[in-house]
Amino acid sequence: MRMLSEACGHRVSLMTPQRGAKMDLIRLANKNAVEEVERATSREERASKLMEALGRMLGLPRAPGASRPMISPTRGTPILWPP
Predict the structure, then answer these.
(1) pTM metric for this prediction
(2) Would you state the pLDDT for residue 22?
(3) Quick one: CA dihedral 44, 42, 36, 19, positive or negative?
């Protein structure tokens, strides 16, 4: 909602059905989306893309020339995640 509100310039609210025919359609759409993603990409590619998106959302720095964000559990040498 926040990203849509920022993009539109006004407050946006999302409503999702909790039961009934509309909820059944949402479940079917989610199932189809999962099947399509699994068909189109490998597990590693999906994990890598997820980590990249999370890194961007959290504002994590990137190692020079790396496509993955740097995550460091200590103040020592940063590590790339996922390995």
Answers:
(1) 0.39
(2) 92
(3) negative
